[in-house]
Amino acid sequence: MARIIAGIGSSHVPAIGAAIDNKQTEEPYWKRVFSGFERSKEWMAKAKPDVAIVVYNDHASAFSVEIVPTFALGCAAEFPPADEGWGPRPVPVVKGHPELAAHIAQSVILDEFDLTIVNKMEVDHGLTVPMNLLFGSPAAWPCPVIPLAVNVVLYPPPTGHRCFMLGRAIRKAVASYPEDLRVVIFGTGGMSHQISGPRAGLINSKFDKAFLDNLTRSPKKLVDIPHLEYMREAGAEGIEMVMWLIMRGALDDAIEEVYRFYTVPASNTAVGHIILENARAAKAKKPAAGKSKNKRPAAKLKRAAARANHRNVLRGR
Ligand code: DHB
Ligand code: FE
Q1: How many other C-beta atoms can be found within 10 angstroms of the C-beta atom of residue 116?
Q2: 247-268 pLDDT, tens per residue?
């Protein structure tokens, strides 16, 4: 059976991609940003997922304003990088996983989420920048990717609750796929930012950090945040954060936060990043409690193991 082992939240600022492509990652401004993803790349190299589902938004690259699907699932065999004005980014073509994507489409649509099935699509910075941040810049991406493009550019975007429930439906779909695949799911975009208008440059670290806290501990508190609150508190483009709720909905209730990073700014945006492991996946890595001579109660042991695991991830073990 396939299963989702972890969720990754990450901003997807285009200037981060430009910094990589123009070899500016060692410049102090950019080093501050990239240094926060060093541990994440180590985590990913160890996690070695078989497939990644990347929830992102298209920024008028694949879809013009003529047609904007609310949820578009990439079912193609490959997705070339889009030309966003300076030619396509020099990143590998993203290889898809048409079989799992078709299975997810069937399961989720029969569960009454009306996805748009996309058999040809170019992918922009919304997808390629988080790929770089977690996988580095290899000659070929190390695993197939299923893109899920969400409309957050043209009113009305889906609600946070709808996104969370779609995540739940994706979790069910993955769990019913017969092949033994380990899947990670990305939620990209955000955190607070506003690119144009009188409030351009707005950043709200307090809102962002509370969002990260609740994503781990009480995601149900996030699902009812109305669009206007995202706009007011996190800026017009802060609405991208609803996509993180698809990722969270696809995880189990019991998760472990194994890594978090937050820095301000990159371009106009607060960069947020989090790695959440499904507890079952995290437990598989922990020392067996039975072997310990320590007679501490199970809950205490569990907390201690979680802390040790957290420290190990931070140290890159
Ligand atoms: C910026 C951030 C984004 O998420 C985006 O899609 C475009 C631009 C920025 O900070 O410049
Ligand atoms: Fe964006």
Answers
A1: 16
A2: 999 999 999 999 999 999 999 9
- Tell me the best of 12, 13, 188 to mutate to test the pocket of ligand 1, counting ligand atoms within 8 Å of each CB and taking the most: 13
**List 97, 103, 125, 273, catalytic entry:** 125
Q: What is the pTM of this model?
A: 0.90
Q: Which residues line ligand 1 (CB under 6 A)?
A: 12-15, 59, 189, 193, 195, 237, 267-269
Task: Summarize pLDDT for 42-80 with one digit per residue, the tens.
Answer: 999 999 999 999 999 999 999 999 999 999 999 999 999
Index of the ligand 1 atom closest to the CA of residue 189: 4
What are the structural domains of the chain? 3-314 (3.40.830.10)
Active site residue 310: no
* Dist. CA 35–CA 58, nearest whole Å: 26
Output the six-digit token pair for 160. Answer: 């946070």
- 255 and 280 Cβ atoms separated by less than 8 Å: no
